[in-house]
């Protein structure tokens, strides 16, 4: 077990370097866009991005964590024939679903912009960004495969670093003609280029196998992915309904400031993403083999580390939130209170550790789905009550309360799951 933790620490350092580089690139990108476009235009971009993110989740059909789960088992057994079957089938499913999602978003963009957001200027932005749905989901499948076969560095590069880096390069090249519509076009171009790169890297990294194995059929994959699909959809709605509902009751200026607050506060969760990237394959393998002792230790120390990091970020945003927001421009200082409140919810997300991954990797997808559903109902209700009167502050309060309750419930269940089993080596 000591050897395992040393190996994880080594990987953590490498993954952390790439993850923090991606976070810096992303933050610098947001600062550039905010300063160049202004709060109103950046609000339009974030609204369109929220819609496209929802469309990508529909197209992915919950395959992300299902692919991690199956690929980690197959890699542990060195079954590269079945691993390639998994890759082929997962890509086939997500391509068909993403294609349907792309057509719907592209041709309904005008109606969504006018009747839902009451902003016809969003139409062109949404249409340009809809082109990214298929390549984005192809990247998502390969990222999950890299996580499953214990290549977290490749997964992190393509999940966090590649897109903002390419987009920054594009914006530097075309900075004299930057508009929100042009940024939407560059966004899709950057994702397409990232997609090409990850396909090349995968083909050069993993052993090739031309053999066919139908032991893992589409039904078996979907039986795991569909509960996770509903979890992904509800998690998205919970994560973006504050921005979307804020866009219904308030103008683009308020949305732009609040969306920036969310982006800043969510930087802390990159550490949870790193932890999940590293531990999720091992959680699946330990659970499959019945190695409860190693599973408990892995989750225990991961949670300790996440709690410490959560506390650091809570204090940072609490005392220096206004200073951090000042980098985006003077108008963004109005989001300081929202940032402080929102960071409380993020504290609970980190401090409860990798509970969501534990539930998804141990066959408890339905409990996770039900917990997310209850939290989603609470979140929508609180947003409906608080946003009209309190605006961005109300949205931050609603989201923080919902996140805290969801993660506390999951933490109690995971604790019961881990310590109701006999101790085995």
Structural summary, described in words:
The chain contains 15 helices and no strands. The chain has 425 residues and is an all-alpha fold. It has one domain. Helix 1 (2-60) packs across helix 3 (80-116) and helix 8 (218-249) packs across helix 9 (252-265). It is globular and about 55 Å long.
Secondary structure topology:
Layout (H helix, E strand, L loop, with lengths): L1 H59 L2 H14 L3 H37 L5 H9 L2 H16 L3 H22 L6 H26 L12 H32 L2 H14 L4 H20 L2 H34 L10 H16 L3 H7 L3 H26 L1 H28 L6
Helix pairs in contact: 1-3, 1-4, 1-5, 1-6, 1-7, 1-8, 1-9, 1-10, 2-3, 2-5, 2-8, 2-10, 3-4, 3-5, 4-7, 5-6, 5-7, 6-7, 8-9, 8-14, 8-15, 9-11, 9-12, 10-11, 11-12, 12-15, 13-15, 14-15
Features:
mainly alpha; globular; 425 residues; 15 helices; single chain
* C-alpha geometry: globular
The largest β sheet comes out as:
none
Poorly predicted residue ranges? none
Can you give the helix content as a percent range? over 70%
Q: Span between N and C termini? A: 10 Å
Rg from Cα? 21 Å
Summarize the structure.
With 425 residues, the protein is an all-alpha fold. Helices cover 85% and strands 0% of the residues.
């Amino acid at each position: 077990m000591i050897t395992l933790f040393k190996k994880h620490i080594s990987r953590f350092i490498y993954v952390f370097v790439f993850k923090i580089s991606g976070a810096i690139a992303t933050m610098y990108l947001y600062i550039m866009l905010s300063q160049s476009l202004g709060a109103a235009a950046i609000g339009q971009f974030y609204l369109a991005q929220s819609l496209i993110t929802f469309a990508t989740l529909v197209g992915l059909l919950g395959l992300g964590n299902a692919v991690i789960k199956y690929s980690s088992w197959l890699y542990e057994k060195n079954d590269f024939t079945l691993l390639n079957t998994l890759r082929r089938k997962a890509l086939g499913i997500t391509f068909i679903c993403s294609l349907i999602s792309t057509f719907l978003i592209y041709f309904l963009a005008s109606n969504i912009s006018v009747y839902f957001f009451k902003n016809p200027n969003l139409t062109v932005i949404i249409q340009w960004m809809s082109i990214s749905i298929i390549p984005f989901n192809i990247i998502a499948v390969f990222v999950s495969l890299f996580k499953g076969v214990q290549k977290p560095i490749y997964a992190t590069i393509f999940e966090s670093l590649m897109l903002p880096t390419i987009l920054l390069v594009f914006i530097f090249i075309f900075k004299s003609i930057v508009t929100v519509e042009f940024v939407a076009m560059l966004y899709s171009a950057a994702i397409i280029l990232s997609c090409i790169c990850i396909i090349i890297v995968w083909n050069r990294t993993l052993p090739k196998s031309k053999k066919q194995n139908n032991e893992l059929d589409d039904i078996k994959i979907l039986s795991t992915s569909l509960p996770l699909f509903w979890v992904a959809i509800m998690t998205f709605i919970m994560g973006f309904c504050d921005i979307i509902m804020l866009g219904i009751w308030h103008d683009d200026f308020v949305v732009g400031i609040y969306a920036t607050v969310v982006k800043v506060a969510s930087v802390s969760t990159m550490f949870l993403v790193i932890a999940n990237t590293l531990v999720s394959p091992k959680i699946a393998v330990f659970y499959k083999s019945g190695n409860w002792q190693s599973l408990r230790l892995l989750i225990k120390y991961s949670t300790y580390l996440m709690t410490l990091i959560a506390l650091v970020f809570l204090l940072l945003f609490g005392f220096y939130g206004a200073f951090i927001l000042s980098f985006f421009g003077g108008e963004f200082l109005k989001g300081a209170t929202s940032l402080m409140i929102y960071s409380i919810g993020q504290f609970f997300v980190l401090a409860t550790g990798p509970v969501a991954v534990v539930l998804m990797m141990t066959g408890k997808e339905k409990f996770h789905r039900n917990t997310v559903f209850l939290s989603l109902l609470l979140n929508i209700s609180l947003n409906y009550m608080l946003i009209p009167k309190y605006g961005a502050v109300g949205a931050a309060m609603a989201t923080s309360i919902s996140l805290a309750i969801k993660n506390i419930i999951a933490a109690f269940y995971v604790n019961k799951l881990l310590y109701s089993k006999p101790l085995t080596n």
